[in-house]
Amino acid sequence: MDPLKIITVDDDLTAHIVFKKLLKKCNIELSELKQFLSPELFLKDEAARRGSFDLLFLDIEMSPVNGITFLEQLDELISHPKYEVILLTSHKDFALEAFRHNVFDYLVKPLCVESLNNCIQKWVSQKKKILKSEEVTLLKNLIDLRKHHPSKIAIPCLKGYEIVNVDEIVRCEADGNYSKILVLNHQNKLNVMLVSRKLKDLGHILEEEGFLRVHNSHLINPDHVVRILKEHGGILEMIDGTKVRITKNKNDVFNTIFQKIPRP
Q: H or E stretch including 33?
């Protein structure tokens, strides 16, 4: 599981300080914490509102805009937020009212390490199950698609899967536990698609279609190589202008490319 990115919205500065201290004692790895003293400040922050955060801890009893009203505003602004909402309240009954907004959970103030940690671990556990299910579904779709359309690949996107012609893929680049797939569209413009698959997983499929793993972080389509440079032991310049150094399987890479492109 990647490190978590968390947002808190609470009009009490002390509550933010306490939350931050409790969070440090929880059994999690945190990459980012953003804290807002009002819903208005949060809504003005485009990066936070639409960013790839995991959890939003929201206090209900705020003034002049309480948490329930804030949730209604969020529902109008963002139909499918990427983060899950966890409510913070001093009154349990008040928290239950907000579950019609599909919040993940609620915590009763004053917070303690145990309740906060249990809540986060419950979310982590459910997230792992969802990711595992998505991976199995994706792999099955990829295998089934290749059986019938070996020149196409199904790439997951927000609304489902986008079917891409393999020969339009210029290269794939590792980005942690994710990969960037660079696709040349019909207008010869490059689209960058980020998928939650490691490069080696894409390699299992694309290497059978002639792609070459030339670097730990690069998988390239030899059909989109425009220059082969001798510097630094061998560099491939791709159609998008990217220069990729060859650090893996040099002889195989050169042999494959020159089989496709004869030398005079």
A: strand 30-36
- The CB density around residue 223, as the number of other CB atoms within 10 Å, is 16
Longest dimension (CA), the chain: 80
DSSP 217: T
The strand ranges marked E within 48-157 are 55-59, 84-89, 105-108, 152-157
H or E element that contains 70: helix 67-77
Note the pLDDT tens digit of each residue in 222-241.
889 888 888 777 888 999 88
The rounded percent of the chain whose pLDDT value lies above 70 is 79
How many residues does the structure list for the chain?
264
Q: How many CA atoms lie within 13 A of 152 on its CB side?
A: 11
pTM here? Answer: 0.50
What is the Cα–Cα distance from 20 to 182, expressed in whole angstroms? 39
List the end-to-end C-alpha distance of the chain, in Å, as a whole number: 51
Residue 7 confidence class, pLDDT cut points 50, 70, 90: very high
Q: Which two tokens stand for residue 178?
A: 């994710």
Radius of gyration of the chain (CA): 24
Two structure tokens written together for 203: 């390699």
Q: Angle at the Cα of 217 (from 215 to 223), degrees rounded to 5?
A: 65
| Average pLDDT for the chain | 80
Rounded distance between C-alpha atoms, residue 177 and residue 202, angstroms: 12
Q: What confidence score (pLDDT) does residue 156 get?
A: 75
Rounded Cα–Cα distance for residues 108 and 124 (Å): 20
The crossing angle, in degrees rounded to 10, of helices 113-148 and 13-24 is: 70
**Pair of tokens at residue 226:** 């425009």
How many other CB atoms are there within 10 angstroms of residue 185's CB atom?
10
DSSP strand pairing (225-229 vs 235-238): antiparallel
